[in-house]
Each structure stands twice: as structure tokens, then as C-alpha cells.
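Quick one: co-fold with iron/sulfur cluster.
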Amino acid sequence: MPSTVGLRPAHLDAPKTDHPRISYLAASRGDITLSVRLLTQAGLDAGDELICKAGPDGLRLTADTLRKVYVEVTGACNLACATCIRHAWDEPLGHMPLARYTRLLDGLSAVAHSPVQPFTVSLSGFGEPLVHPEFLAFVGLARARGLRVEIITNGTLLDAALARELIALGVAQVTVSMDGGDEAAYAAIRGHDREPAVAAVAALVEARRRARRRLEIGLAFVATRRNIDSLPGLLALAHDWDLDFVSVSNVVPHTAEMAAEMLWGGAAWAASFPDTRWRPRLEMGRIDLDERTRPALAALWDRAPTWPPPGAEGGPQRNHCRFVHEGMLAVAWDGRVAPCLSLLHTHPEHVNSHWKTIKSHTVGHIDERPLLDIWRDAAYRDFRRRLRAFDFPACFACGGCPDTDTNDTDCYGSSFPSCGECLWAQGIVLCP
Ligand code: SF4
Ligand code: SF4
Ligand code: SF4
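Sure, here it is.
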């Protein structure tokens, strides 16, 4: 379990090394002294809490630094997907005004030019960002400040001209949501013809090729019973187009219709136990996957309780909040700041065979304080410590109780919000 220890940044003449990124630490009686040079090289701000984690190879040092913000450009969308949270919440929809967005960016000036890890603005949220009439200004303002920009879009409004503009502005990554590896599967989820989204990906690929500029292009797929059979088709498409990634998430069931379609009931339960509880634990070296080995390997995976199998290299972690470990938060179109996308809007979820109301958790407002001040607020910092320790009960193993009808508390007496039944933290739901 990570622990936060007393670390004192100091102006030291650190021993010289040949490696530009390696310096040495002086440690005595429980204190570690870091040279300013090392802090600067690592992009760590001395004002941020430093976190030290003991592991088999020694100590790992990270910082509680804000690195990425998901910006909900708008709550509006031109589609009405069966999976969408917007069917199930009772909240006003609107566009984020440009003045509010500018304030948000102004609050990031101190982290905008990190030499090591560029700060990322993800233009996404629960709505379609391209519906916003000033969307390109959102991209341009972030790029003018040297920020790395990612976009998540349904692609239906992204044509060849816009693809070229995104490349010219230096957008780093575009994810197109495509919940179907064929027309029928896509239409069954999105209630819309797939062709515009396919054309958007083709336009991005072509614009990237012509401009010879770096742009990561990926697909996001939300798996349900009605579209899972088409997943190989989506992977084939991504392979043919030479895309950079495909992100496959589970559905968050906001409606009874989607509760009947989810594919993770057993996986959520299995995630409650350490990987070492699975007997026999399987350790394998890398083996070629070809006609000769595929049947045997498929039979092995058939015995695994989930995919990826417990303990698989690169598989999602359990009791692990990516938002806190990767320094991310979310801002709603109306300026509210939340620790994650799940806590951005009050909404229903069907988890552990019961309906649960996830109440939104606001840690600040863009119109009132700079974003970095909000990030460094003592109460929010304490919440992140709780999340790193993940001191919440294993509700998926237990099976649910009246305490978990909301995220107010749990049987540990946790204060709001309790994250024991969070689908993100158990690796069930992923955000690109
Ligand atoms: S594209 Fe996204 S925001 Fe729009 S309806 Fe579908 S899931 Fe909801
Ligand atoms: S554990 Fe889940 S609900 Fe809690 S902050 Fe992380 S993503 Fe949000
Ligand atoms: S709060 Fe406690 S009793 Fe209730 S479901 Fe979670 S682990 Fe079980």
C-alpha cells in the first residue's frame, strides 16, 4: 500500500551521474532529501505531495500532481445511444461558455509547460463535444497554451475539413466511439447509421497521412450482449487502418434495458479477490499465437474466470482509481469540478443486482477558484489519500446491502463518497 512520507526538497549538490534522468537521494533516519535538479527533471512540483511506494525493486517515487483534465464541453449530443447516461439523469443540459473554459485554462498556467509530462486537456465528457458551436476555439485556446489535447467524439460530425484543422492545430489524440464492428451492431446501440463514424476515422487517417504529423487515432467500444459478437470486426477495421489503439469498456447500466445487457457480473465478483487466490495461479512466458498454439491457449483461457485472466500482464487493476493514480479530474460544462467522470453527475447504476444512486461530488467550481487551487485543497487531497489506500469494503464480493443504495457511506462508516462499488476502480469500466 502506498504511503505518503515526509520528503524535503532541498538545494543539494547531488552526486553527478552519466544518466540525464538519474540522480541520487540522501536518506537518513527516515527522511529522504531530493535535489531540486532531480525534482525538475522529473517534472515534480515541490508544492505537490510526494508519494513513496515500497515494492520488490525498492522505492518508487511519484507526485500527487494534476496531469489531465476531462472537460465536458457540452451536455448536448446529436445521438441518443441506448447506453447513454443522459437517458437516466435529471440535470439541465448546456454548453460550456468560452469565458469559463478560458478561466479553466488560466488556472493551469503553472503546469502547462512541464518538460517531462505535457499536461493533457481531454475534450470529452457526457455529451458530444463537436456539437458545441465554438469547439475549434476550445482546441485552439488549449494548444496556444502548449497543452496536449485529446478529443473523444462519436465522429458523426467530423468531416475531412475538420480532420485537417485538428491536425493543423496539433491535436495529439482523437478517439472515435464506435460501438459496433458492423452496421447492425452499431445501429442496435447507437440507433444511427455507422457510415459517418467510419468516414470520420478514414478522414483522420488520410489527414494524418497527408500532413505527416503525429496524431494518435483510436476507437472506443462499449461492450454489451447485443454488440460483443462484432468486436473482432472492429479489431480488423482498426488493424486495416493502422490505428493506434482500441479501448474496450463495459457498459455502466443506467437503465433496466442495459442492466440486462452487461457482461461483467462475474468479473466484478472475481475482481474482489487478489489474483493469488486463483488456484492454480498461471505464470507463462510469451508464446507465439498461431495456428499451432491457438487451440491450446484458447483452452487455457477458457478456464480463466475473466478476460484478461487474473494477474495477466497489462490487465486492469483492482481497487485502483486511475483518476487519482494518474492525476486526473473532470469538469462539467457548468463549471463544477469532480474527482472523476463517475462523480460528475448524479445518476443511477445497476450494480451488484441492485439499483444505486451515485451522487455527484463537487470539489470546487471553476468560476470561483483556479483549478490548481482546487486540486491542492486539503479536503480533496485527503480524499485522494483515501483513494490511494482504497480503504473501502469489498462490496462486489459481499453482494450489496442497504448501505450501498447510494454512495453516501458503507459498512466501514466511510464518509461521502464511498467508492467500494465503483466500476472504474475494479477495472470494469475504462475511459480512453
Ligand atoms: S454519443 Fe455519447 S453522449 Fe451522445 S448519446 Fe451516445 S453515449 Fe451519449
Ligand atoms: S474510485 Fe471510482 S467513484 Fe471513486 S473517485 Fe475513483 S473513479 Fe470516482
Ligand atoms: S457496505 Fe459492507 S455490508 Fe454492504 S455490501 Fe458493502 S461490504 Fe457488504
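If it helps, Residues 195-211 form the longest helix (17 residues).
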